[in-house]
Amino acid sequence: MKHAQTYQLNVDEMNGFFEQLSEKYDIYAPVRISCGGRYAKDDSIIYQPINTYQEIEFHERSTYPLKEVLTPITQTLFYFTEDEFKESKSPQKDILIFGRACDINSIKIQDQIYLKNGNIEDYFYKRIRDKVKFILMDCPEQFEGCFCCSVGANKTDMQSLAVSDNNGSAYVQVYDSDFANYFAKYAAVNHEIQPPLKNELKVDYPVIDNLELANKLKEHPMWKEFDARCIGCGSCTVSCSTCTCFETTDIVYTQNAHIGERRRTCSSCMIDGFDKVASGQSFRKKTSEKYRYKILHKVYGYNARFHTGPMCVGCGRCSARCPELISYPATLNKLSQAIKEIKGGVQHD
Amino acid sequence: MTNNPVKPTACKLLDIMPQTQTEWTFRVKNNLPIKHGQFMQLSLPKVGEAPISISGFGNGYVDFTIRKVGKVTDGLFSLRKGDNIFIRGCYGNGWPIEQFKNKTVVIIAGGTGVSPVKSLINMLCDDSDYAKEIYLILGFKNSHSILFADELKKWQTASHFHVIYTLDDEDYPGFQKGLVTDFIKKIPFTAFADEYECIIVGPPIMMKFVGMDLLMNKIPEKKIWMSFERKMSCGIGKCGHCRIDETYVCLDGPVFNYTVGKKLID
Predict the structure, then answer these.
(1) A278 and B70 in contact by Cβ < 8 A?
(2) Residues of B with CB below 8 A from A275's CB?
(3) Is A284 an 8 Å CB contact of chain B?
(4) How far is Cα A291 from Cα A235, in angstroms, rounded to an integer?
(5) Which residue of A109, A205, B7, B21 has the smallest Cβ count within 10 Å?
(6) Cβ(B200)–Cβ(B213) under 8 Å?
(7) Within 10 A of B44 (CB to CB), how many other CB atoms are there?
């Protein structure tokens, strides 16, 4: 961890800081949307541009993950005419995003797919990613179902600043010298913002170290129950900090059917049609097969390709969003058990 | 700004050549280098984008043979000669043609699976010195679904070609009735010594049974090559649709050796 000075600012001072930043930056943070949830009188917390410190929701986990700032659920890639595709406009300002350690670490996984896989950089991801800096949010309370410590996502060094909300004032720890000038008028205080070091939930994250074992696990009976339990809605993958899959679709304007937009929309391996080829064939027809495919990507496929650990930051959103109350950590524990069985030579019919 | 890998380029549609009622070959202007067995992303403004295998290419053009099945392909079938079509690519590894040099090549393909291997067969036909002998077993459902009829005739008459054309469930001149797997026993593998390679392309179920049959005939796995078809939105390893465990069909395929392909369980 880099050495960094800490300052204490009250709300007005923080808002003054945000105002100064606004010349160069758009600031995104989790914001509570009253009655914006999926049930009556249920709120949602989503990443949005903010102007003031009071808009930031510090005390509850955001419903949707930080990745949405970089890869929105729907974004326009191109505008097209009959002869030409033209890229949509790039973000104009630089971007500062408030996120917890798990949220910020999840962007490493987005980077891996969008910038590194196949040694091809995705133009639309790259152009926004280059503009992004992170503000680490202190995470003293943690939330139900979090297990960042089990996957090593509790600490990060990607932050430019760290902010801890302290009942109406804020501790700001400055890591990036680009921001030092903003704090020249304040005296440094002796306060270190600490990462969460322990979660209530501990997950023994399974390790699948070879394809033979992964293929044997595909045959294991543990997946069968999800045919009855999982409804294949895709809520888990939309809320996942690390999922990256998308569809490309074209729309045309009703006033002129010769021009329109090509859009990229968040997709999910949990929904029908994700693997459907032109001839109509699908490769994973049962919900249990889709669920198995998703879990084994997180646990096996991603790490087998990139050798950077699990495709999971332990944020707990997938379990929190599941309308069928399926627990991802519980699935991981079952998977660990299945691995032990297979390695121990237990046979299933 | 850097080059945008998913930005398609408008290319002129040079010709449309119907093969069957529902399968047409679209000839598109192209000067990019292509390897046998690669694919491109075809897009139609207003409709969408889809990966299509390259069924032929030559000086200044590329061919796509497309069945009218989906939203993207419906749009293609309303185009006319001279219209623009948007393409990007090429993508994928293509057939390992170096492996086929001076060897006997056995190609077993079914239905639209003939498309991704057609340009390779033509190359092996035109350059009779490239490989030794070519054994083809090509299967179609019935007489209405026969593709590349002119080329089938050409390959039949090539002196270094041994061809068996089949229809699943119809008696028809020039074709034997039955599945491609029924005719594998007619290939004299023992006469090839060790100098041969096999190619399988077709629907997954066909590739599975042909693969099993070849193994039963004691063909070593490493001599078998196959091409996979998967859904893709990007073709460059981002959209996730074609991923099987750590393998991306768009980046690592679509051609796989059997030793690798047999482990790719969706």
Answers:
(1) yes
(2) 230-231, 241, 266
(3) yes
(4) 12
(5) B21
(6) no
(7) 23
Pairing of strands B161-167, B176-177: parallel
As given in the structure block, the two tokens for residue A349 are 């019919």
Taking the Cβ of residue A74 and every Cβ of chain B, the question of whether any pair is shorter than 8 Å is answered with no
Structure-block tokens of residue B88: 């990007």
- Amino acid making up residue A248: T
b (16+ CB within 10 A) / e for A31-58: bbeeeeeeeeeeeebbbeebeebebbbb
Question: What is the rounded distance in angstroms from the CA atom of residue B26 to the CA atom of residue A344?
Answer: 56
CA dist B43 → B76, B243, B259 (Å): 9, 21, 34
Which one-letter amino acid corresponds to residue A52? T
pLDDT, tens digit (0-9, with 9 covering 90-100), for A53-109: 999 999 999 999 999 999 999 999 999 988 889 999 999 999 999 999 999 999 999
DSSP string, B118-131: HHHHHHHHH-TTTS
Chosen from B246, B250, B265 to mutate, greatest number of chain A CBs within 10 A: B246
Using CA atoms, how far apart are residues B162 and A277, in angstroms rounded to an integer?
Answer: 32
The 10s digit of each residue's pLDDT in B194-225 is 999 999 999 999 999 999 999 999 999 999 99
User: What is this model's ipTM?
Assistant: 0.94
Phi, psi of A2 (to 5 degrees): -70, 150
